Amino acid sequence: MAQEKSMAAIPEFLSKAELLKQGAEARVYRARFLGRPTIVKERFRKQYRHPLLDEKLTHRRTVQEVRSVLRCRRAGISVPVVYFVDYTSHSIFLEEIVGSSTVRDHIVSSPPSARCEGLEPLAERVGQVLARMHDEDVIHGDLTTSNMLLRCGPEDEVSELFLIDFGLSYISALPEDKGVDLYVLEKAFLSTHPHTEALFQRLLKSYAAASKKSSAVIKKLEEVRLRGRKRSMVG
Amino acid sequence: MHLTHELELFPGHKVTQMLFKEVKNAAELRQCAVEGKINGALINPTMLVNPFQVLVAANKAVNSQNNGKMKTRSLYSEIIFNLSPTNNISEAFKRFGCSDGDDSVLVVLIHNEDESQLLADLTARVSGRQVPVEEVSSLTDHAKVKKLYKVTQEEEKSGTLLDAVVCRMAAKDVM
């Protein structure tokens, strides 16, 4: 009885937290944890999967997310701090980046006339950060402008760029995987922000300049553009 | 002077931290803790960056206890174990536990009732000067902490030392 009650500590806690978003994979909550503003990502049970398979996949993704976050931090990339991980309820407790907005909102809210020129420094920053991430062999897996946060520094200094949501990330040194990662971003970028081709080119240029292994990746990206994200499996 | 925080995940579980300087009976205190006469964890404050680090370790310890997944024998040894970046228990005690010659010690208690009696009992045992827990940051041996947690220079540019330490503590069972 006591055991059963204590096992439910985290679901009980989350039931009182503020639900921010529900996706196919997880629910995201906002709460206070150890006195700090915290984001909790809970991977819930999928009823449509066999329980054993579900447990295994969910566990692996939780672990992978934590690993990638730590790997990025080690390389000096700004990512939210992991405060606590519970492998029973598959919940990750992360630092809330207070006072931040997504890169998506930032681009959308800037006047269309200035959209290309005014945003160039931002595009360059994104390119540099992604170059550093790929040089560490971290593949994000879900790069969109909604998975990047901007936090204005004190006294309106240069704002800090955070990468979030490493739920689909993995480790790979293959130019193919990095190329696909950029391709996914390109698709997402150009469809959420129409007429920003020049801006995205700026991003790629700064990626190419910052990454040590960029030439192979950019070549792969061109290949992927022609065939799409999936490799052809004919024959 | 002490710092008490109720764990949000485990209502009723409170974590109290106390910091003592100029401690003269560290060996005796350690012996008491080993024998179970002190119901608390004695930590070497030079390895701590901030009281938040202790909260993270304590929260994880209570969670492991509830899930029956503790790696060590008691809740208090689990706190010390959780502070360490490695899974080596004896090394965790050596680095983070209190040693006989120490002149400062941070005591962690986990309790559910009012703390005043517990605190009085403990303060009576320590022959030293109690100081605000926040002062732990002035005792930190930064070089040793960076070396033990393997914090890189790049990482320090993008975040604080506390961030780096907490991340490693939280992620250590999957590394």
TrEMBL record, chain A:
One of its GO terms (molecular function) is ATP binding. This is non-specific serine/threonine protein kinase. Belongs to the protein kinase superfamily. BUD32 family. Keywords: ATP-binding, Hydrolase, Kinase, Nucleotide-binding, Nucleus, Phosphoprotein, Serine/threonine-protein kinase, Transferase, tRNA processing. PANTHER family: EKC_KEOPS COMPLEX SUBUNIT TP53RK, NON-SPECIFIC SERINE/THREONINE PROTEIN KINASE. It is found in: Nucleus. Coiled coil: none annotated. One of its GO terms (cellular component) is EKC/KEOPS complex. Gene3D superfamilies: Phosphorylase Kinase, domain 1 (3.30.200.20), Transferase(Phosphotransferase) domain 1 (1.10.510.10). It catalyses: L-threonyl-[protein] + ATP = O-phospho-L-threonyl-[protein] + ADP + H(+); L-seryl-[protein] + ATP = O-phospho-L-seryl-[protein] + ADP + H(+). Component of the EKC/KEOPS complex that is required for the formation of a threonylcarbamoyl group on adenosine at position 37 (t(6)A37) in tRNAs that read codons beginning with adenine. The complex is probably involved in the transfer of the threonylcarbamoyl moiety of threonylcarbamoyl-AMP (TC-AMP) to the N6 group of A37. TP53RK has ATPase activity in the context of the EKC/KEOPS complex and likely plays a supporting role to the catalytic subunit OSGEP. Atypical protein kinase that phosphorylates 'Ser-15' of p53/TP53 protein and may therefore participate in its activation. It comes from the Eukaryota. Component of the EKC/KEOPS complex composed of at least GON7, TP53RK, TPRKB, OSGEP and LAGE3; the whole complex dimerizes. Residues 14-235 form the Protein kinase domain. It is an enzyme of class 2 (transferase).
From TrEMBL, chain B:
Keywords: Cytoplasm, Nucleus, tRNA processing. It is found in: Cytoplasm, Cytosol; Nucleus. One of its GO terms (cellular component) is nucleus. It holds the Pfam family CGI-121. One of its GO terms (biological process) is tRNA processing. The keyword tRNA processing applies. InterPro entries: CGI121/TPRKB, CGI121/TPRKB_sf. Belongs to the CGI121/TPRKB family. This is EKC/KEOPS complex subunit TPRKB. It comes from Pagothenia borchgrevinki. The lineage of its organism: Eukaryota, Metazoa, Chordata, Craniata, Vertebrata.
